[in-house]
Amino acid sequence: MTTPIVLDFRPHPWFRSGHAQTLAGLFLYAARHEYRAQRHLVDLDDGDQIVLHDDRPDRWCDGDRTALLIHGLVGCHRSGYMERIAAKLNRRSVRTFRMDQRGIGAGAGLAIGPAHAGRSEDATAAVEAISRLCPHSPTTVIGFSLGGNIALRLLAAASRRSIGRLDSGIAVAPPADLAACSRTMQQGANRLYNRYFVRKLHCFYEELQRLRPDAPAVELTRRVRSIWEFDDRVTAPLSGYQDATDYYRRASSGPELAEIRIPTQILAASDDPLVPLEKIVQYRRSPEVRLNVTPRGGHLGFLACRRQIADRRWLDQQVVRWVCEF
Fold this sequence. Notes:
Layout: E1 5-6, H1 18-27, E2 38-43, E3 49-55, E4 66-70, H2 80-91, E5 95-100, H3 120-133, E6 139-144, H4 146-160, E7 166-172, H5 178-184, H6 190-211, H7 227-238, H8 244-251, E8 264-269, H9 277-281, E9 289-294, H10 314-325
Parallel strand pairs: 1-9, 4-5, 4-6, 6-7, 7-8, 8-9
Antiparallel strand pairs: 2-3, 3-5
């Protein structure tokens, strides 16, 4: 197993703690990007559909690199990190495809099955769709948080059989041990994140029931109060799992890290309040999987000073650099 690599990230002095980095990364103002993408519907084997948002640089041509970006829990193609990194990759002549997971963003109403951390088959369909659109172009998958778990499962599957022209991957703060992350959400100040995510998940579920009356339903006699309870009562039964324990065991990417034979970069922060670093380190990794660690950074934060990086977004700079090195 490769030794974790410690990267030199220096946090903004106003945002030194993991919580401060996490919240600043989410809420700090960033200019919105004008939507110019072309939408592609991708058919899935069970009849559902997902949406890809295709941002093609002016000088891009078939044979140049493409990237599939997968958002995290309660995110979508308009999430700040998705827009920013896609735009920065476009400036480096990388064609990007921002994926809306099932029923989310532009995909609302197009699926009766819920999105979840084990949906690597959806990412597979997305990569294969990209390879049809760009038959000579290599593809990098980039997953954030829950999307990082999906990306790692995809990379493990692509190491067993060819999937499109996928040749590399990046996972940022992936919850490689879903059960451990769910438990972490119930501890201390993390309960605030738990309430935020549960409210968002309830909204997604209610929107699904409104847009798709034909979707399977579960009886919610009382409002669920934790991620674990939501997964146990909604995600698992609607996705073919026995319960939350079965879902977490079968969908976690950690046990598959040793199977990956495709160049892969994982980025994680020691002070991430949502994804315990020790739960990523515990898994055996193949030589192709490089675990990069920073002492600070929070969860999808990594905010630096302006004198270091003009827009403070160290995360974006690191991801773009890796993509251009593949």
